[in-house]
Records
---
Amino acid sequence: MEELLNTTAADVTQLKYALDTFYFLVCGALVMWMAAGFAMLESGLVRAKNTTEILTKNVALYAVSCIMYLVCGYAIMYGGEYLLSGITGDGFTGAEEPATYAPSADFFFQVVFVATAMSIVSGAVAERMKLWAFLAFAIVMTGFIYPMEGSWTWGGNAVFGMYTLGDLGFSDFAGSGIVHMAGAAAALAGVLVLGARKGKYTKEGGVNAIPGANLPLATLGTFILWLGWFGFNGGSVLATSDVANSNAVAVVFMNTNAAAAGGVVAALIVARLLFGKADLTMALNGALAGLVAITAEPSTPSALQATLFGAIGGVLVVFSILTLDKMKIDDPVGAISVHGVVGLLGLLLVPLTNDGAAFSGQIIGALTIFGWVFGTSLVTWFIIKAVIGVRVTEEEEYEGVDISECGMEAYPEFTSAK
Amino acid sequence: MKMVSAVIKPFKLDDVREALSEIGVQGITVTEVKGFGRQKGHTELYRGAEYVVDFLPKVRVDAAVSSDIVDQVVEAISSAAQTGKIGDGKIFVTSIEQVVRIRTGETGTEAL
């Protein structure tokens, strides 16, 4: 009888390991799908002549992120060996401290977050950056810049041995700061080095609209991101195999969805009041702003609080986009506003519902992440600019980077076989 | 024989077609066109910034008719296409030197 109980207990533990691993992998796959969301959103918000290049950038940056995080990023962020040596091992049987899920599942879940951070950059620098300059930056960002700040936050290491963010009351559940604001900081540095698209700002200080080519794609991309975010936030609970964790997962899903909804409605209303018309692109940015705002802490707010937090993000993002335009910081898709400004908001909202976090800790954490990512990115962009240049020529920009960088149009017409 | 070319608002096309059928016009040619008039297009907002739509979409209806019904045709198009608002369009009437029906070789008013 005792033997039977022992076997059953061991089976249950194994089952929990299997279930948590499975949950983690499915969530990782959902987050991977966010790469598709970013690709569609960005290709919808740029002009048709830059479609092929933005798609190339998105698929290539995803691949570069995966390889760089495998080569050195994961080791820098969480310890362990370069090239993931040994990670395929069993985290359970015979392990000194049995893990609750497979170590390689952890890598898979983390690697898709890196790709998300890098995707944020591609939209902001769209329509004028050289493809290979962007990919060169992606190598540094995903192999070094992001893993360093990740090691200080989720990795738990001290910042250059000086202070430990966790001890100061810093808390970022799924990465409003660590992933989104970090991506936006790198994007901002890139945009400052790169300059605005030709024709975006007039000499008299006016702002010209450059409408996106395909709003159905931008909308599809937003829905895909919204879906992927359930993996992004939901998976960050890290387990689902007992009552407490599965309740937490359900709350996170509920709040993530509520925040996005609040963001859409708020942004739509603000756009209607400011412009007199319902601006779809602002509503889409509002959805993403709601999602970013809740990402730092989706597990402790009530559903109403989550909706309101999302709505604050939705209002903030519209004003942020307009302000950046006044400052002549040209961001075709609004990535710096959505992920950076609202990412910061997300961090600052955490202490309202989570007693374990402190405002001071959130501010120090935000400054640490932004300072590090922005500073190192700026240096990296300048080095790339000096070596190969970051911007296409004026003529290439006019013709569209599809032709100059990829040699093919997204929608070719009047062509014939040779 | 006259060529009546009317540039009208696209949503009025069906009304104009019906009005022309009623007075016995046998055929029309319709083209989607773009252009501007005294308003010089209009401005729209995208993400809070203005952009100018220089050319507005219009439909051009061409009807070749005999000279004795040309006034009726112009009147039919005018009343069918009018909304009283800016951008209702214009009607141009020109003379036609010759018309040939390709299938039969008929010419002149026989071919209309």
---
Amino acid sequence: MSQKVSELLDGQLASSEVKAALEETAADPALRDRYTIYGLIGDALRGNSTPDDAYSARILERMKREGAQIEPGFDPLRDE
Amino acid sequence: MEDTNPDVELVRLAQANDVRAFEALVVKYQRRVARHVARYLKSAADVEDAVQETFIRAYRGLAAFRGESAFYTWLYRIAANVAIRHLKRQPQHVLLGDDAPEERTDAFQPGVSDSEQPERTLIAAQIADTVQRALAKLQPDLAEALLLYEVESKPYAEIATMLGIPIGTVRTRIFRAREFIARRLEPVLGPQRNRRW
């Protein structure tokens, strides 16, 4: 399954496979870890600095806290 | 499979309210967005705030994303707008030229408070060092495939043509290279499962 995680990260899965791979990855802490570490390796190779481990978790927490929803008509490139 | 717009299916799922798909995009692009924003903003707290705002605005505006550009291109444009707005709110902001960011030359690490910088800089250096050491020990054919993809930004299909191998072999080599490096990174990163994503 880890190879599927690698291909999911790179957008290499067939459209029909993505949903199942995502579900399996999201449900398994070990696979989520793999997805994160594979991404971190790529960024390290490109010289991107590495924020702390909980960086993405804080983004997702704030989204939940603020009740972020998809808003039809909202243009993220425009000032509010 | 899609090399020119690799996130098309994750974006489609996220647009259909699959939050996990958007989470996967956040995990994938958090560091690149942080690096982009850090070209504009100096304080680690401001960078993190701007990164969070970028992803929140992207999520709210996901219905507006039509896939005319790659998802990360759209994300970068949002990030730049957010960073510039942050900058303009600061008392003595200076924008160069057409809002051009200055490339940072210090060892700034986005995502940590300024007081945590030395520790985070050390860990980041350990990660970079571990990755480079693992790369040096990696089978050359695996390292070549990984570097062509991650550093040279070559699509899988082009790597297959360049190396004269089937695309399935490219997938396997990139995966095996990542696994080899990941196993050596784990002791540096520590047991953080459920914390990173």
